[in-house]
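Class, look over these structure tokens:
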Amino acid sequence: MAELNLLAGPYAMPLAALAAVLLDRLFGEVRRFHPLVGFGALAAAIEKRLNRRTIAGGVLGWALAVLPWVALALALRPLAPFAVDVLLLYFSLGARSLCEHAEAVARPLSEGRLDEARQRVGWIVSRDTAALDEAGVAKAGVESVLENGNDAIFGALFWFALLGGPGALLFRLANTLDAMWGYRTERYNLYGRWAARVDDALNWLPARLTALSYALLGRWRDALACWRTQAPGWESPNAGPVMAAGAGSLGVQCGGAAIYHGREEIRPPLGCGPAPVAADLGRAITLIRRSLWLWLAVLFLIGALHA
């Protein structure tokens, strides 16, 4: 009975979060029949039918793709709250996958296999990577790790802490649709605008808490200064604080020129110090993992205060 009371009391939420994180650490993402893969196929089918390049069509498509699953999660949760919360957060997390992708870039880069490192980093970034030098590959990898720390881990944890498993699911599905539809291209500029705005709204506070976590666990003075001065220069209201604080915390210089779809874009600077090298990818992974344990510690502290 004591165990059951513990799973239904003030420690239920942090224990569920810890269980989901451990499941992700042990097993990573589901290799076959991952729910997000099925969701992506459903979203693509909805977009194919509804995309008439209007905002209204995008709102309807977003609602049809997301709301039924969140409603189902809310309906199932009272039947087994702890189990449902653990499974939904586990499916929403991507900590192990993020670290594995980063390590797959760092390993060949540190061993001088630049072509392989370019190919690997091309799997996790949207910029063109064919002509990147060693510093360019390391920079792209560090930026991706820092930004996706929020998208793949901390955003889901934040909404889980507020709304349980259904909150984590809402965040993950909204973030997935932004990744699929949130582009300023002719096809998605209007249709994907709602998906992009919802993702911005859901990410606003988690991104700043992620940036604060990065700052607290590294060179905090540099991190806070970079966040304050560099983040406003970024078009994304959430990626700017996360990457600026993260790069400042690591003491590396990111940002600058990058090629997207064949065109060079000059982006504002991120962080301070020398250009990143292969070893800095490992340091970025360590920063992500330490931030994750910090968040779990805060969740248990909140549970203790409620108890």
In short: The mean pLDDT is 93. The first helix runs from residue 2 to 8.
